[in-house]
Amino acid sequence: IVRRIASVGDSLAAGSPVLEIVDRSRREIAVEIPAGVAARLGQKPRMHVSLEELRGFGLETQLDAFVPVADEQSRVFRGLARLEPEEDRDGVLKPGMFVRVKLDLEPLRDVLIVPSDAVRIVGAGTLVVRAKAGQGEDGKPSLTAEFVPVRVLGAQSGESAVEPLAGELTDGESLVVSGNDMAFPGAPLLPRSPSAAEPKP
After folding, report:
1. Of 54, 70, 101, 111, which has the fewest CB atoms closer than 10 Å, so is most exposed?
2. Percent of the chain at pLDDT exceeding 70
3. Do 99 and 49 form a contact (C-beta atoms < 8 A)?
4. In this structure, are residues 67 and 76 in contact, taking their beta carbons and an 8 Å threshold?
5. How far is the C-alpha of 80 from the C-alpha of 62, rounded, in Å?
6. How far apart are CA 32 and CA 43, in angstroms?
7. 1.20.1250.20, 2.40.10.10, 2.40.30.170, 3.55.40.20: which CATH number matches 23-103?
8. Is 160 helix (H, G, I), strand (E, B) or coil?
9. Mean pLDDT of 185-198
């Protein structure tokens, strides 16, 4: 019993609640899912749960329900996992606890991979700075900065999967990794080394 709503002698209508009871054998985990990964959940994705307060604790379950409508203010989606008694036999997880969740997502296919340092966030969105080859005023080969808006599909271990939103971005093109926060469209570029950041398939 976690809350007593009525006491002995109170007048109640038929069907009115008297007590609030928690059934610890039926626990649920409410999950907030960012919009950027919601499309890659697949069917009944596996979910890995951990606690910051208890190192070494972890369990695996599945996401049982997913509401395919984002919250109007936070822009996140809601999910729900129902814990079976055997998944947490010791009853470590208590009602009201905050947990960390990792979801197994569907793999990305046929996407471009770039160094995460090449991705720049600006007021208008996310972009990469392409080193566009051309000719300078002296007729010699030159490189200038060109902004390419992208959508980040995922990131891991210093690499990001991106999708161009305008124009084209293909594997083999050179991107600015160092100093891209100071670049502007048409800015002259001076490579520091022969190796450049290239998106790869």
Report:
1. 54
2. 94
3. yes
4. no
5. 9
6. 17
7. 2.40.30.170
8. strand
9. 71
Q: Which of 184, 54, 57 is nearest to 132 (CA)?
A: 184
Q: Which of 157, 198, 161 is nearest to 176 (CA)?
A: 198
The fold for domain 112-189 equals 2.40.420
First to last CA, the chain: 57
Does pLDDT of 111 surpass 70?
yes
8 A C-beta contact, residue 127 and residue 150 = yes
Assign 161 to helix, strand or coil: strand
Interior/surface letters 75-112, b for 16+ CB within 10 angstroms, e for the rest: eebbbebebeeeebeeeebeeeeebebebebeeeeeeb
For the chain, what is the radius of gyration of the CA atoms?
26
pLDDT confidence tier of residue 154, bands split at 50, 70 and 90:
confident
158: left (phi over 0), alpha (psi -120 to 50) or beta: left
User: Helix or strand or coil: residue 87?
Assistant: helix
- Residue 21 class from Cβ within 10 Å (0-12 exposed, 13-18 middle, 19+ buried)? exposed
